[in-house]
């Protein structure tokens, strides 16, 4: 049976679907067998039991427009071909009773269960109740994916519906009660623990599962309490042991504390003793200080007469020094006048020297003028001789003009050549720019190709390594080998890449395409066998399919929104395109738009295409094997990953050809540039030669004129030098006269200087006399000052002694205060408090000297130091542990009491749970074994656990044997075949049937995997078990039945038909059909 994600039916003139129900009133009369059940677990009123389904109504639900199903109270067999809508009824039961979509294993959203093209759907379930039937309605909104609930036509919430359903013991999520088609395989996958839980919920008393849960919780609490008691007991023992170890240390700690207390009192008394000693010392220093102070006063009175005499001598010394300064001033003025006279005499000597030097200079200038005149005359004579030898240069002008014309012609040729070079350079720059642009385009193409290769390397590293090997070894192959399809495909528009990637499997996208079988074997041997790379390879068809025309023209399909076939969406090498057309028919698969999706039913019906792509979905169309109807499935398109990068290979080849042409033009331009540069170099060389020749001719032409100009210039200079004459005798006479006058002035100045020197000598004698008198005064004054200094030294020593004594007194006073303060602080006394009596009492028994106190302190400290390794925290921890031990002992007693209570509770609950559970499992085992025995097989059900106390590990174990030669094996998803698992599942459910307290059971297509023999046996058991009185309602869904099966009059057979000639729902009248049938029967001849 096809199960696509969505169903689309073949359109027909009347597209509604309808389930034809068998009316119980039309059954053939027969005797009813009434058999009371062994376990009256269900309340019943008439044929229906409490919670049975009386009516199922569907509107716009899956395959149905409008449908109403009225099941019978016992076995309901729903029969119909695959795809007609049998499982839709199962889905309606589940969703209508507040089940989750995941229970059916079909879809995860409730909106997917509404018929395609409809915005809303409805399911209505009517449940039997003795107090009045319960009608539950669920309306489904597709757009919002929401449900609206009603009970007896009144709006309500899903939670209230779930409570109502649970109150009737309906469990659509329990595989023992509700087994949809897509969950049949999961029953065998249930673990023993899950099977026990499902069985408890399904057939056990309501309190059984509750007791089981309580037992698991109690056992978990018991384990926690046992662990806690064990940990606390171990911890308590460790703490007691630790305190015993530290008890001796605590006693030693207190002994050490007594020594420390004595040390504390000694240290408290010591500051008081220190204070008293310092106070006595202070009084002694104060008496000595007062005595020294009197001595200082007497020394100061003895220094007063000496001070007065020193002042008188100091005044006399000041007067003498003033007179010495006056004489020094007079001496200075006389000395300055002598200096002035000496300066004038020196200036006169200097003037004489200057006159003599000027005369010597004029003599030297005259000698130099005579020498220059001689040199100039010699140069003129040499220039005149050279001028005579110079030839006539008038015939050189024609040669100069000819060279000038040649130079002008060569300059024109050079300009033309330079212009051509500039043109060639511009042409080369243009070509270089074009080359760079083309290179950039090629690099961009290569980057895009690299992106594709990077994706290949990241996802399929082996394939990427094989590509690298192929590129280096193409010479090993005889025919063309194409790289992986994902690298060779080039999308024309990368938006369409998703269609190609969804159509071509990933294994083929990374496959290499070969044209030769031999080449492919060489490739696979090297890559797979030698290099151990996992790669795929395919062979292109011998005859090309690449250009094969589609069976239908695209113009015919454009009316449905199709715009292209897959083949036209990309470019690829001919072998790749041929392989894809042959293998995946890409030339036959059209691609449409959103318009196509909107008309999809019409497209499927009219085009008969096998595969269709819309904007976001892929449709696969098949024909049903049973009904010959068209069935389509659709899937959402995955996002493209590999082909989104587009590389235009044709444009890249065009760019490569363009690049080759540019290289050829560049070579031509470079050759032309080399030739032009050689020509320019030759012209430059020739130009230089002509310029040198012209320069030589011009120099020869201008040489005579230059010689004539030089001779004229030298004659002018000679004339000027001859005119510039000097009379040396006259100059010597004038200089002699001036020197005589200066010597007369100099003699007068020497006489004046001699007189000034005599005056200066007299002043110096007077000054020396005054200095001697001043020295005598200073000597007497120094003697007095020496006596004064001796007395002052004695005074300073005495004062220093006084200051030291005073400072010592201050220091002792401050020390007394500090010692008093420290002593009070040690005893914790305030500023005005006296020493307490208890201190005075203790201090009387202690030594009174510092030495004795220090000796006793040392002794006590030595004794205290003997107690090493003691830590004050040990005593604190010891005391704290004593408290914790007491507290922990009380807690442990409470935990043990609580543990005993939990064990008592476990014992009581276990008795109420385990004994009924064992009886229940034994009943299930009895019925299960009987069912298997009737099939000549063996099977048993037992309660399995590894540890009786682990209540969360209890489970139901099913063991079966289908052949006499084998042993019983546990039912697992792997050991038995699919048919054997189906038989075992069905028989287990039948074993639960008579014990079941649930109102109905649903089993969908469980007989599909059974062989005919087992199917017949199981069917007989189902009929016999489900058709007993007071058993729960049973729904058995199957697409096929064997011939000549036994049927019971209590069965209700529901046939589901589906076809283009079905009546519309509003014209369906079952009673009218039955009446017509009876009339036809009565009118037939006997």
TrEMBL record:
One GO cellular component term: PML body
Main location: nucleus
Domain spans labelled RecF/RecN/SMC N-terminal: 53-1038
Keyword terms, alphabetized: ATP-binding, Cell cycle, Cell division, Chromosome, Coiled coil, DNA damage, DNA recombination, DNA repair, Mitosis, Nucleotide-binding, Nucleus, Phosphoprotein, Telomere, Ubl conjugation
GO BP terms, alphabetized: cell division; chromosome organization; double-strand break repair via homologous recombination
Alphabetical list of Pfam families matching this protein: SMC_N (PF02463)
Coiled-coil region: 236-434, 676-748, 875-912
Gene Ontology MF term list: ATP binding; ATP hydrolysis activity; single-stranded DNA binding
Gene3D superfamilies, sorted: P-loop containing nucleotide triphosphate hydrolases (3.40.50.300)
Keyword Oxidoreductase attached: no
Localization: Chromosome, Telomere; Nucleus, PML body
Biased composition (Low complexity): 1-17
Protein family membership: Belongs to the SMC family. SMC5 subfamily.
Subunit structure: Forms a heterodimer with SMC6. Component of the SMC5-SMC6 complex which consists at least of SMC5, SMC6, NSMCE2, NSMCE1, NSMCE4A or EID3 and NSMCE3. Interacts with NSMCE2. Interacts with SLF2; this interaction induces an association of the SLF1-SLF2 complex with the SMC5-SMC6 complex. Interacts with RAD18; this interaction is increased in a SLF1 or SLF2-dependent manner.
UniProt protein name: Structural maintenance of chromosomes protein 5
Organism: Pan paniscus
């Amino acid at each position: 049976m096809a199960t696509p994600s969505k169903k689309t039916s073949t359109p027909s003139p009347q597209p509604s679907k309808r389930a034809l129900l068998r009316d119980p009133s039309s059954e053939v009369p027969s005797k009813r067998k009434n058999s009371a059940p062994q376990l009256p677990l269900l309340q019943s009123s008439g044929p229906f039991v409490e919670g049975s389904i009386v009516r199922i109504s569907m509107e716009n639900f899956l395959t149905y427009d409008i449908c109403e199903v009225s099941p019978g109270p016992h076995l309901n067999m729903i029969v119909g071909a695959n795809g007609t809508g049998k499982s839709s009824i199962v889905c309606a039961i589940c969703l209508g009773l507040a089940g989750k979509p995941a229970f059916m294993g079909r879809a995860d959203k409730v909106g997917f269960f509404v018929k395609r093209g409809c915005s809303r759907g409805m399911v209505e379930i009517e449940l039997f109740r003795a107090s009045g039937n319960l009608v539950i309605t669920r309306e489904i909104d597709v757009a919002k994916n929401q449900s609206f609930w009603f009970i007896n036509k009144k709006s309500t919430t899903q939670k209230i519906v779930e409570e109502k359903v649970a109150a009737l013991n309906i469990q659509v999520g329990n595989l023992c009660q509700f087994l949809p088609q897509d969950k049949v395989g999961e029953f065998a996958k249930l673990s023993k623990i899950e099977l026990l839980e499902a069985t408890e919920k399904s057939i056990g008393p309501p309190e059984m599962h509750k007791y089981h849960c309580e037992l698991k919780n109690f056992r978990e609490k018991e384990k926690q309490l046992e662990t806690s008691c064990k940990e606390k007991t171990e911890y308590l023992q460790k703490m007691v042991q630790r305190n015993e170890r530290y008890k001796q240390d605590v006693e030693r700690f207190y002994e050490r504390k007594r020594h420390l207390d004595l040390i504390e009192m000694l240290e408290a008394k010591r500051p008081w003793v220190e204070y008293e000693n310092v106070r006595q010392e202070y009084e002694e220093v104060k008496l000595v200080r007062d005595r020294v102070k009197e001595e200082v006063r007497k020394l100061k009175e003895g220094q007063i007469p000496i001070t007065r005499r020193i002042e008188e001598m100091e005044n006399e010394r000041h007067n003498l020094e003033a007179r010495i300064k006056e004489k020094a001033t007079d001496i200075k003025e006389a000395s300055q006048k002598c200096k002035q006279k000496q300066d004038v005499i020196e200036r006169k000597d200097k003037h004489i020297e200057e006159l003599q030097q000027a005369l010597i200079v004029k003599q030297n200038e005259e000698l130099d003028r005579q020498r220059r005149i001689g040199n100039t005359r010699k140069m003129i004579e040499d220039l005149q001789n050279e001028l005579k030898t110079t030839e006539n240069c008038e015939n050189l002008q024609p040669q100069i003009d000819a060279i000038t014309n040649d130079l002008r012609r060569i300059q024109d040729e050079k300009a033309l050549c330079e212009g051509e070079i500039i043109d060639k350079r511009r042409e080369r720059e243009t070509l270089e720019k074009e080359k760079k642009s083309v290179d950039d385009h090629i690099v961009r193409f290569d980057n895009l190709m690299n992106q594709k290769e990077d994706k290949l390397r990241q996802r399929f590293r082996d394939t990427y390594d094989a590509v690298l090997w192929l590129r280096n070894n193409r010479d090993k192959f005889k025919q063309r080998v194409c790289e992986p399809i994902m690298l060779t495909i080039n999308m024309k528009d990368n938006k369409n890449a998703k269609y190609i990637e969804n159509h071509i499997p990933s294994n083929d996208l990374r496959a290499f395409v070969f044209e030769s079988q031999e080449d492919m074997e060489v490739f696979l041997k090297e890559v797979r066998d030698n290099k151990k790379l996992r790669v795929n390879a395919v062979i292109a068809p011998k005859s090309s399919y690449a250009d094969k025309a589609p069976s239908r023209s695209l113009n015919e399909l454009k009316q449905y929104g199709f715009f292209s076939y897959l083949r036209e969406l990309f470019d690829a090498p001919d072998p790749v395109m041929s392989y894809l057309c042959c293998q995946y028919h890409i030339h036959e698969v059209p691609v449409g738009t959103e318009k196509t999706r909107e008309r999809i039913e019409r497209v499927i019906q009219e085009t008969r295409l096998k595969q269709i792509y819309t904007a976001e979905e892929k449709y696969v169309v098949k024909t049903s094997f049973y009904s010959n109807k068209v069935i389509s499935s659709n899937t959402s398109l995955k996002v493209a990953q590999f082909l989104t990068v587009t590389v235009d290979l044709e444009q890249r080849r065009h760019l490569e050809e363009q690049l080759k042409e540019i290289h050829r033009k560049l070579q031509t331009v470079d050759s032309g540039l080399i030739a032009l540069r050689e020509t320019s170099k030759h012209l430059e060389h020739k130009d230089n030669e002509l310029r040198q020749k012209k320069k030589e001719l011009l120099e020869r032409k201008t040489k005579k004129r230059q010689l004539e100009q030089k001779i004229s210039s030298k004659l002018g200079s000679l004339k000027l030098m001859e005119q510039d004459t000097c009379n040396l005798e006259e100059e010597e006479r004038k200089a002699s006269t001036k020197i005589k006058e200066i010597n007369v002035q100099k003699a007068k100045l020497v006489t004046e200087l001699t007189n000034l020197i005599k005056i200066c000598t007299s002043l110096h004698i007077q000054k020396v006399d005054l200095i001697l008198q001043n020295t005598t005064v200073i000597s007497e004054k120094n003697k007095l000052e020496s006596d004064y200094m001796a007395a002052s030294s004695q005074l300073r020593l005495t004062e220093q002694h006084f200051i030291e004594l005073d400072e010592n007194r201050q220091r002792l006073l401050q020390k007394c205060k500090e010692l008093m303060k420290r002593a009070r602080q040690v005893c914790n006394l305030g500023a005005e408090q006296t020493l307490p009596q208890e201190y005075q009492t203790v201090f009387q028994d202690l030594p009174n000297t510092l030495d004795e106190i220090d000796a006793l302190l040392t002794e006590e400290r030595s004794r205290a130091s003997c107690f090493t390794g003691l830590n004050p925290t040990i005593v604190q921890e010891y005391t704290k542990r004593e408290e914790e031990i007491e507290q922990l002992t009380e807690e442990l007693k409470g935990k043990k009491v609580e543990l005993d209570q939990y064990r008592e509770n476990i014992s009581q609950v276990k008795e109420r749970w385990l004994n009924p559970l064992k009886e229940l499992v034994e009943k299930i085992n009895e019925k299960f074994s009987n069912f298997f025995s009737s099939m000549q097989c063996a099977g048993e059900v037992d309660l399995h656990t590894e540890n009786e106390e682990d209540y969360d590990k209890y489970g139901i174990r099913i063991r079966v044997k289908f052949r006499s030669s084998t042993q019983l094996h546990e039912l697992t998803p792997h050991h038995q075949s699919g048919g054997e698992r189906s038989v075992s599942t069905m028989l287990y459910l039948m074993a639960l049937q008579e014990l079941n307290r649930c109102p109905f059971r649903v089993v969908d297509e469980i007989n599909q995997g059974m062989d005919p023999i087992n199917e017949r046996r199981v069917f007989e058991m189902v009929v016999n078990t489900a058709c007993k009185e007071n058993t729960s309602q049973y729904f058995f869904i199957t697409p096929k039945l064997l011939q000549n099966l036994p049927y019971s009059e209590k069965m209700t057979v529901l046939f589901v038909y589906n076809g283009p000639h079905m009546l519309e729902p509003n014209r369906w009248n079952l009673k009218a059909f039955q009446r017509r049938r009876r009339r036809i029967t009565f009118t037939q001849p006997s």
